[in-house]
Design goal:
Layout (H helix, E strand, L loop, with lengths): L1 H18 L17 H11 L3 E3 L1 H9 L5 E4 L3 H4 L8 E2 L5 H8 L12 E4 L4 H13 L4 E4 L3 H6 L11
Parallel strand pairs: 1-5, 2-3, 2-4, 4-5
Helix pairs in contact: 2-6
């Protein structure tokens, strides 16, 4: 009898775990990513070595068309859900290989061209900014903001046209 109760309780708890997350209101914030502390430390250390701008500075530069070339380093499936107008999608894992076309390669490459990188939370674009600095780019800025907050604040966002 005790074993049966334990089994039923385990099934009930397991089932509740499957059902309850789906009952959360749509407006509930997504849980914070659960990364090992070393990842957060790497991003924090990287942000000390690069130029970052907060959302208000980003918006001001956006309005004045002073962002230069805006690169969104999220994955393609994230980008298609919405992006800052004018952004080009180059996933972080491909940035070193694809950025050169944006700065004049194979003709004259402008290593001082203003590049502003953004992503979902500011982490990936920070790491990508550091990679571009390591390649010799001298005018790279990382947007230290969450794309979700950009949208919630009513700033412009768009989605790609359907094919």
């Amino acid at each position: 009898m005790k074993a049966l109760r334990r089994t039923l309780l385990a099934i009930l708890l397991f089932s509740a775990g499957l059902i309850l997350p789906g009952l959360a209101p749509a407006s509930a914030p997504a849980p914070a990513p659960n990364y090992p502390p070393a990842v957060g430390k790497l991003v924090a250390e990287t942000k000390k070595q690069i130029k970052t701008i907060k959302m208000d500075e980003f918006r001001a530069a956006f309005d004045k068309k002073e962002l230069g070339t805006l690169i969104d380093v999220r994955e393609e499936e994230e980008f298609v859900d919405g992006y800052v107008p004018g952004a080009t999608n180059i996933p972080r894992g491909l940035i070193e290989f694809r950025i050169c076309k944006k700065v004049g390669f194979p003709n004259e490459v402008d290593m001082n061209k203003r590049l502003t990188l953004c992503c979902a939370t500011g982490g990936r674009c920070s790491l990508a900014t550091k990679s571009l600095q390591d390649l010799g780019f001298s005018n790279v800025v990382s947007a230290d903001m969450k794309f979700e907050d950009w949208v919630k604040a009513g700033h412009p966002a768009e989605k790609p046209a359907k094919k």
